Amino acid sequence: MDDHEMLLLSNQVCFPTYAVANKILRRYQPLLKELGLTYTQYVTMMVLWERERVKEKDLVEALYLKANTLTDLLKKLERKGYVAVRRSALDKRSVEIVLTEAGRELKERAVSVPKTLAEEHWLTDEEIVQFKELLNKLLKGDWGK
Amino acid sequence: MDDHEMLLLSNQVCFPTYAVANKILRRYQPLLKELGLTYTQYVTMMVLWERERVKEKDLVEALYLKANTLTDLLKKLERKGYVAVRRSALDKRSVEIVLTEAGRELKERAVSVPKTLAEEHWLTDEEIVQFKELLNKLLKGDWGK
DNA sequence: ACAATTTATATCGGATGCGATATAATTACG
DNA sequence: CGTAATTATATCGCATCCGATATAAATTGT
After folding, report:
1. Structure confidence at residue B127 as a pLDDT band (50, 70, 90)
2. B-chain residues within 8 Å CB-CB of A12?
3. CB B41 within 8 A of CB B75
């Protein structure tokens, strides 16, 4: 591949990944709006629904985000009453996030989101498996710090 | 799959897509900083390097973005001197974007970006083909408007 | 013990990205 | 022909994201 070709949009992997991520986000937004959640708030809640209680640090790892991105987001989730945020007693640098009763209740309503979207069959079951394997390889790779 | 499983982060397609897109963005940023471009400005310039001259409307389609996202971005690229933005004479609603000489020169320096990243081999050649096919199917799908 | 380093968050500023809404130009149509 | 509908942008406000930098607490090394 020569220099010219290297700069063609169609030869990039980054570009369609970025475009698909944006497109997925746009599809989720109207559904999440009914729950009063943004997309990042939604995936954050997903971790809480699985674990009930996590350190901010573990959340950062689980979501592949940076701590500063989560700081504000957690405050917003706290204002909405879905989580409690408190300094850990054991390690006063650390922050613990705990699911509240309201947060637990939200889960019941949230089920409709993956249900609705699963019915749209963007990919076949086999393609989904393939796609997730590739995405995982990219996520685990150590090229992005 | 029951309701509980449906809300596991590990069963989502959206989540790793979103995480990978963010990770890719983070990897590009330091390289693009040397060119004085942000990621979206970079992909916009890619279209210009291919076509020399486009309508804003066509740019919106090519980049899978919304017009309002591009309006500000184009002004910034214009301030940097890489493009000229003008109302079309034929259709005064429409805006034409034209690559400038400085924009053309930028291309020479930009080649280093895909070159550097290609050397990092995030995926094998075969996986890249597979991945792009899946991404394309998702991009072409009519579920996201 | 205690100075130096590391770790976990918080703050700030810059750049998106989008929906909702507004505006101006063009097209459709009765 | 003139009004209604459509199209292409522009504005505004909100919610991310991130890098750089700051701060406080814990850990390490001597």
Report:
1. very high
2. 43, 46, 114
3. no
B69 at A interface, C-beta within 8 A = no
Whether residue A145 is contained in a domain is answered as no
Strand D positions closer than 7 A to protein CB: 7-13, 15-21, 24-27
Residues 93-122 of B with CB under 8 A from A: 107, 110-111, 114-115, 117-118, 120, 122
- The crossing angle, in degrees rounded to 10, of helices A125-140 and B14-33 is 40
Show the domain range for B109. 5-120
CA of B91 to C1' of D4 (A): 20
Number of domains within chain B: 1
In this structure, what token pair is assigned to residue A78? 């706290």
Preferred mutation among B2, B12, B14 to probe A, highest tally of A CBs within 10 A: B14
pLDDT tens per residue across span A46-96: 999 999 999 999 999 999 999 999 999 999 999 999 999 999 999 999 999
**Any domain includes B13:** yes
Nearest to B87 by CA among B55, B124, B42: B55
Residue B43, SS3 per DSSP: helix
B14/B8 Cα distance (integer angstroms)? 12
